[in-house]
Amino acid sequence: GPTLPVTATLLAALLPGRTGTHDDAGLCLRRSVMPFVPYLVFDLGLVEDFREPGLYAGIIIAANRVGMMMTSWAFGRWSDKHGRVPVLVLSMAGQGLSALAFGFSSSLEMAVAVRFVGGLAAGGRDLAQVMVTEVCVSCPEHQARAMSTNAAMWGLAVIVGPALGGGGGQG
C-alpha cells in the first residue's frame, strides 16, 4: 500500500539507542509521523485537494495525545508497583507495535485507533525523566549534566523524528 515506506521509517525511528536519560526513541517515533500524515490523509482518499487534509491530520495526530493523557498517571502507579524499567520497556514495545500498525493503516478509523492505542502505550514516556531524577538524588554532583543531557536528547528526537518521517513519507 501507499504507507509501506511509512512503516520502514517508523521502524527506523525505533533504532536509536536509549541514552538512559529520556524516552528519546519513543519521542522520535511519535514525532516522525507528523510530516507524512497529510499525505496519508490524501492517499486514503479523504480529501480531493492536497491543501485540505488539516482536519483529518489533526484528528490523527491528536488521537495519540488523548491516549497518552489517559494513561500517564496509571503508568506512574504501575512503575511504583512493578519497577520503572519493566514498565518503560512495556511502554516502548507498545509504541513500536502501534507504529508498525499505523504504517499499514488503510482507513481514517484505523489510523485514529492505532494512534490512540500508541498514545495509551506512550503514557509511560515520563518514566525515563523520573529515573534520571531518582539517580541524581544519589549523586547530586551529576544532576546538572544529567538534566541537560536529557533536554538535549529530547531536542534531538524532536529534530530527527520529523526528518525521518518526512524522508520516509516521500517514498
Summed up, what is this model?
The protein is mainly α.
Fold and architecture overview:
This protein is mostly helical. It contains eight helices and no strands. The radius of gyration is 17 Å and the shape is elongated.
Q: H/E series, N to C?
A: HHHHHHHH
Unreliable spans = 1-25
Relative strand content: under 5%
What distance lies between the first and last C-alpha atoms, to the nearest angstrom? Answer: 11 Å
Please give the structural blueprint:
Layout: H1 4-13, H2 24-32, H3 37-43, H4 54-82, H5 84-103, H6 108-121, H7 127-138, H8 143-169
Helix pairs in contact: 1-2, 1-5, 1-8, 2-5, 2-8, 3-4, 4-5, 4-6, 5-6, 7-8
List the main descriptive attributes of the protein structure presented here:
single chain; 171 residues; mainly alpha
